[in-house]
Amino acid sequence: NAGVMQNPRHLVRRRGQEARLRCSPMKGHSHVYWYRQLPEEGLKFMVYLQKENIIDESGMPKERFSAEFPKEGPSILRIQQVVRGDSAAYFCASCGTTQETQYFGPGTRLLVL
Amino acid sequence: DQQVKQNSPSLSVQEGRISILNCDYTNSMFDYFLWYKKYPAEGPTFLISISSIKDKNEDGRFTVFLNKSAKHLSLHIVPSQPGDSAVYFCAASERLSGTYKYIFGTGTRLKVLA
Fold first, then answer.
1. pLDDT tens sequence across A68-96
2. pLDDT confidence of residue B98
3. 3-state secondary structure (DSSP) of residue A105
4. Which residues, including other chains, have CB under 8 Å from residue B53's CB and lie 6 or more apart?
5. Contact across the interface for A99 and B99, Cβ inside 8 Å
6. Are B84 and B19 in contact (CB under 8 A)?
7. Among A98, A104, B18, B114, which is most buried by a count of CB atoms within 10 Å?
8. Where are the beta strands (DSSP E) in chain A?
């Protein structure tokens, strides 16, 4: 029973490039959350998605960031025109229908040069 | 405005003794709480949860206590083992329209000394 999978685990981008982070939820889970962790800080909520729907994106910057969770395939967090301040660890978590407990993936560490 | 606070950034405990990690919150509407353990370069691993209708939940060496009047929860690990050395995060959420949007504390780094 595979857990939450994220890829790539590490991503290096130059300023102005695009970053695409992928998350495959745990089998049977249809709810996906994205969090960002800056160095020495806790995890900050970005966006909550169900299949084909964005439910809550109140934690996501209004510009350059977008997320999707298509009917088929993984959830994607997309960052356009990356800047150095986007360097962080990005974690996704999934949960089942009861939604109380979220299970995290290993994270993608984005470094913007 | 930090709604969930872990005021101790680090804690050292001798192997075999009790580790007590603390967490305070400000929003009285929070009704579900989680504790996670995180090793470097890995994702957080779920440890234990507690609902606001309870004041204690136990799972093996891990016990979480909730004091709603003080808006305080704590995680007790006993006996502590070297493998418990990690960063521990508490998270709190209010159930809104069927969803849980968790607010995380900044973490406490636990070091268990052999």
1. 999 889 999 999 999 999 999 999 999 88
2. 66
3. coil
4. none
5. yes
6. yes
7. A104
8. 5-7, 10-13, 19-24, 31-37, 43-50, 53-56, 65-68, 75-79, 88-95, 103-104, 108-112
B41, B100, B107 member nearest A42 (Cβ): B107
- The model's pLDDT over A23-59, given as tens digits with 9 standing for 90+, comes to 999 998 889 999 999 887 889 999 999 988 999 999 9
A-chain residue closest to B9, CA distance: A40
d(CA A84, CA A14): 8
What is the spatial distance between Cα B43 and Cα A22, in angstroms, rounded to a whole number?
A: 14
Across the interface, whether the CB atoms of A99 and B107 are under 8 A apart is answered no
Contacts of A19 (CB under 8 A, 6+ apart): A11, A13, A78, A79, A82, A86, A110, A112
Nearest to B34 among A44, A45, A101 (CB): A101
Closest Cβ opposite residue B101 in set A40, A41, A56: A56
A101 and B44 within 8 Å at the Cβ level: the answer is no
List phi, psi (to 5°) of A85. -70, -10
Give yes or no for residue A1 having a pLDDT over 60. no
- How far B7 CA sits from the closest chain A CA (Å)? 12
- Token pair of B7 as six digits: 């005021």
The C-alpha of A16 sits at a distance from chain B's nearest C-alpha, in angstroms, of: 26
List Cα–Cα distances, B110 to A39, B16, B64, B83, B90, in angstroms.
17, 14, 16, 10, 13
